[in-house]
Amino acid sequence: MSLLKRIKKCLTGANQTGDNQSSVMISKNKDIFIRFDPQKTAPEISEREVEILKDCWNIVQRDVAKVGIISFVGLFETHPEVHDAFMSFRVVNTSDTEYSAILRAHALRVMGTVDKCIYRLDNRDKLRELMTEMGIRHKNYSVKTKFIDLMGPQFISSIKPHLETVWTDEHEKAWDNLFKLMCYYMRKGMCSI
Ligand code: HEM
């Protein structure tokens, strides 16, 4: 997608949520970030989307480790600067085995959080609490706020092959909305300290 189209897409998305104060930032590798506005209301997820997410998760869960690792490898390949955010990965002389163990452990933790969020879709207060606290911890790990939104698109690309037979635009939108909601609360937590 051309840079212009991507900016347009971001701006259109921002207008749809009634937010006309977001400002667009473009990084060196042409990622587009919308400046976070903590006053903005939380993204919506419809009942139909909750159903889709739960159905998909039942299928994807079998390959949870694979999906998690592919998401992170994709993230590091497309955004090498994110790699440095992982303090533990900066340890000098980390062997390949240790490195993959760290990668796998972190990927599984993220997948565990997705699992918790799917079940907390029926209790949005708990989802908010979980992700806001997660955001506060990520701030303490010195993770940049703008990196948080990069996770969703990588995750979606890695689950698609596992759901090939059922995947539609509706599925894409449901997962995009879930990550938007998770990241919204994480970023809110990060901004609160
Ligand atoms: C939706 C996105 C993400 C979720 C759900 C998530 C989830 C988690 C979880 C569950 C942990 C374990 C420790 C804890 O609970 O505090 C963790 C640790 C951590 N995360 Fe994330 N994370 C996300 C995105 C990111 C991104 C984009 C980065 C890097 C730029 C990152 C960097 C870290 C670091 C540095 C740690 C601590 C050290 C480590 O475990 O290796 N996270 N994350």
UniProtKB/TrEMBL annotation:
<keyword id="KW-0561">Oxygen transport</keyword>
<dbReference type="Pfam" id="PF00042">
    <property type="entry name" value="Globin"/>
</dbReference>
<keyword id="KW-0813">Transport</keyword>
<feature type="domain" description="Globin">
    <location>
        <begin position="44"/>
        <end position="191"/>
    </location>
</feature>
<keyword id="KW-0479">Metal-binding</keyword>
<keyword id="KW-0408">Iron</keyword>
<dbReference type="InterPro" id="IPR000971">
    <property type="entry name" value="Globin"/>
</dbReference>
<dbReference type="InterPro" id="IPR050532">
    <property type="entry name" value="Globin-like_OT"/>
</dbReference>
<protein>
    <submittedName>
        <fullName>CYGB1-like protein</fullName>
    </submittedName>
</protein>
<comment type="similarity">
    <text>Belongs to the globin family.</text>
</comment>
<keyword id="KW-0349">Heme</keyword>
<dbReference type="InterPro" id="IPR009050">
    <property type="entry name" value="Globin-like_sf"/>
</dbReference>
<dbReference type="InterPro" id="IPR012292">
    <property type="entry name" value="Globin/Proto"/>
</dbReference>
